[in-house]
Amino acid sequence: MIELVSESKCVKCNLCVKVCPTNVFDKVDNDIPVIARQDDCQTCFMCELYCPVDALYVAPQADWNVSITEAVVENKGLIGSYREKVGWGPKRTPVASHGYIYELYKRAKF
Amino acid sequence: MKKDIELVADVLVIGGGPAGTWAALTAASKGSKVVLVDKGYCGTSGATAPSGTGVWYVNPDEESRTKAKLGRFELGGRLAEDTWMNRVLDQTYENMNQLSAWGYPFPLNEEGNPHKTGLQGPEYMRLMRKIVHKAGVKILDHSPALELLADEHGVGGAVGVRQQTGETWKVEAGAVIIASGGCAFLSKALGCNVLTGDGYLMAAEAGADFSGMEFSNAYAISPIFSSVTKTAYYSYASFYYEDGSIVEGAGSKRGRSVIAKKISEGIKVFAVLDQAPEEIRPFLRISQTNFFLPFDRLGIDPFKDKFQITLRLEGTVRGTGGIQIVDETMKTLVQGLYAAGDAATRELICGGFTGGGSHNAAWAMSSGTLAGKGASEYAQRTGVGNRDLKGLSSVPITVGNSTFKTAEYVRAVQEEVMPYDRNLFRTEHKLAGSINRLDDLWKDIRNGSISIEGNAIKARESVAMTLTARHMFNAAINRKETRGMHKRIDFPQIDANQHYRLISSGLDEISVRPKPVEQEAILK
Ligand SMILES: Cc1cc2nc3c(=O)[nH]c(=O)nc-3n(C[C@H](O)[C@H](O)[C@H](O)COP(=O)(O)OP(=O)(O)OC[C@H]3O[C@@H](n4cnc5c(N)ncnc54)[C@H](O)[C@@H]3O)c2cc1C
Ligand code: SF4
Ligand code: SF4
């Protein structure tokens, strides 16, 4: 579930409010968005992909809350890690075009 | 009642996943004025966007096509039809090539040509939104449809709410395409919590029928803590008990039942992808980044560390039942109403089984394209006109206060559809019990009313899930055999005399009747 909107990183663009399929966030005038309906989060990680500054963290636990702090996930290099792997953001190449996908296709057993 | 936003269009598309976006785009390219509404956000919402899909992209030579068509034919209980498979293979081939031309970044093969057997969800759906927008389609995000509008000439629009502003909307349209996906009963399977059968409900209220609703019990493997129901890689898994001994017969495909049995007996099952050859592990990591994401975040190495698994219900999302289709225009029995993607029955191309991979994605893009064309031609022929349209909701949607027991209904439906011993392993006895309880629930629901000022969409979702479950179980009790994904413990064999489709119809009373399979694939 979504656990964190980083106050220090967020640039208040409200893209997460716009793209979250289950409308978890609320926009706040002149402030960072709030996680208003955490129970509705479907743990799809899409907000992380669209946040331009890696200010969001979605914990992988789908059915229960976990307590994490920004410092901990930041230290573990987890914040922004999905966007990096998907290859979104400036100077990155989308993973969709990665040659390994074709390599797997040649060898996969599924 | 006047709505805050009132629009007129030739074609209204409900749902902005692959089926809805291809439908909208096609209708717009035929010169229609198109509005697309999505409950979430067109581009991130639905089953494809966060997950990604293998696609049934097959070269158009005779040999490859025949092999592809026969691939799932037996597994699907011989309910797929040759004409439909050809149609979808052709359309998918065309659409995938089109995606390449639009700039979808396919990987390259040895010859330097794009390799097109899969689509990464975020990339694909971001591109689709861009193209749809460019085509002049008006997109309303966070704007779920609540009910269809109709008069004696058929369906002519829909009304809904805008979740982020509380405004109401109304779109009058010559034709409406339902592309709202399947129903996974709020199980939190990846991307599926927006998929609550809303389109089934709206179609049933308009008088459409369903086909194959017994093929609705897809359960997907996921780590117990996670929403990520990506299953392909479990073909490299070994399954263990807590004490480290092997679970005999467990597997990712046919062996899934073994896993379900153990879990329902309260036994913990663990998986580890230790069968994946060392040299392909980096390829696996790149090809499905989202598969590894939950593990990486918890410091689990899925190739080495055992992790506990569960099976999450995906219902009709990776099932095959849905709204019955009359012909290749994707029209339903109701004038002006069309369906595409998971909302429409997929039996036509994969019978009673889909599991992971390929057919669903091909169906979504192909049926979407066909529906866009069909609806557009119909709307241009009949025009929008000045009509006296009325809302069709089976539960009155009112202004002002009303209480609706949404949470209670959701829980009650989930208790019927989620347990493996009811929905995955079916018996006459348990199905009859579920049907009785769901019928009572439905009666209670019918006496209520939904306030448009409250959380109307959640209330409608609970109604939709109840109706979906009733269609599923009524079809299931009538198929007294085991075919495709439909498993009857009391009838464990396939029965040649039941080689037909089951059509279900109704709201208060659900009736089920057999229909012959038109033209099955010719087996070599
Ligand atoms: C984890 C996972 C992996 C999968 N992998 C594969 C694969 O490898 N290959 C394959 O072929 N298939 C796969 N599938 C299936 C595939 O994702 C679906 O078949 C496909 O997404 C269907 O497309 P669709 O457009 O019909 O529905 P969806 O993509 O689900 O989109 C439906 C849209 O309708 C919207 N909506 C719902 N209700 C309303 C309403 N009331 N008003 C307005 N809008 C509404 C939703 O917000 C959503 O945007 C997978 C599914 C899952 C869950
Ligand atoms: S998308 Fe990121 S930067 Fe923009 S408002 Fe949300 S958290 Fe802040
Ligand atoms: S993970 Fe998905 S559902 Fe949860 S807040 Fe992010 S976008 Fe919304």
From TrEMBL, chain A:
Matches recorded under Gene3D superfamilies: 3.30.70.20
SUPFAM superfamilies hit by this protein: 4Fe-4S ferredoxins
Keyword annotations of the record: 4Fe-4S, Iron, Iron-sulfur, Metal-binding
Positions of the 4Fe-4S ferredoxin-type domain: 1-30, 31-61
Entry GO MF terms: 4 iron, 4 sulfur cluster binding; metal ion binding
InterPro entries: 4Fe4S_Fe-S-bd, 4Fe4S_Fe_S_CS, Fe-S_Ferredoxin
Pfam families: Fer4
Protein name: 4Fe-4S dicluster domain-containing protein
Source organism per UniProt: Robertmurraya kyonggiensis
From TrEMBL, chain B:
Domain of life: Bacteria
GO function terms (MF aspect): electron transfer activity; flavin adenine dinucleotide binding; succinate dehydrogenase activity
Active site, UniProt feature: 256
Record carries keyword Oxidoreductase: yes
Keywords from the UniProt entry: Flavoprotein, Oxidoreductase
Record carries keyword Protease: no
Residue span(s) of domain Fumarate reductase/succinate dehydrogenase flavoprotein-like C-terminal: 416-501
One biological process term in Gene Ontology: anaerobic respiration
SUPFAM superfamilies: FAD/NAD(P)-binding domain (SSF51905), Succinate dehydrogenase/fumarate reductase flavoprotein C-terminal domain (SSF46977)
Gene Ontology terms: cellular component: plasma membrane
Domain FAD-dependent oxidoreductase 2 FAD-binding: 10-215
InterPro entries given in the database record: FAD-dep_OxRdtase_2_FAD-bd, FAD/NAD-bd_sf, Fum_R/Succ_DH_flav-like_C_sf, Fum_Rdtase/Succ_DH_flav-like_C, SdhA/FrdA/AprA
PANTHER family: SUCCINATE DEHYDROGENASE 2 FLAVOPROTEIN SUBUNIT, SUCCINATE DEHYDROGENASE [UBIQUINONE] FLAVOPROTEIN SUBUNIT, MITOCHONDRIAL
Stated name of the protein: FAD-dependent oxidoreductase
Lineage, top ranks: Bacteria, Bacillati, Bacillota, Bacilli, Bacillales
